[in-house]
Design a protein that fits this description.
Length: about 230
Amino acid sequence: MPALPPRWRKWSKRRLPLLLVGGAVAVLAADLGLHVLKDMIGLVRGDRAPAAHAAPMIAAPAQVAAPPPAPAAAEGPFVVKSILPIPGPIKFGQYYWDESKGQPGPVVITVDLAARVLSVFEDGHEIGATAILKGYGDKPTPVGVFPITQKDAAHISSIFDVPMPWMLRLTNDGVSIHGSKVERGYATNGCIGVPDPFARNLFRVAHLGDKVIITDGKQLKLGDPIITPSKS
């Protein structure tokens, strides 16, 4: 190989590194272009599918719960269907009686000792209501459900030897509903005292076996069951 002139040798020493770097860059650029070209050819041929674009998740609209159906109107002879229009608390000796809305059917008597009120329901309609006397102290009026076991229009107490007109017996030990002088300050020995005219009306519509429900603070409103069905 012939020797290079001194001037070329100086130029080669300065430019040769640049030429080498430039050549390496050109090779890399060519290689990159080749890969890009292959990718484009693959896309055209379908060899490489583009990445699928995930559809955004759209939440389904919330289901609005339908309101529960309204309860069916209560029916039956032991459900409160109507109440007497009484303007305020019933005073001692006062009573109400109106059979115009009542229909022939089972009679149920309720007694609220806390309110001192007795009500009469016939086929679910309140036909009578009155203030009562009740027992206190060691002779309280019992609470519970009691069937009428005896009727006696002119009963005389065998224990106290006093008249108990229009008597409806509830217990074997003498507790009953009967006519009485219903005034403030009076009490009974466990019985339920009602005004005599009211007792006469009650005696007429009540039958043996009819239920008397005595509670201490329970009040009924329209649609309420008068007698709660027993669970089987």
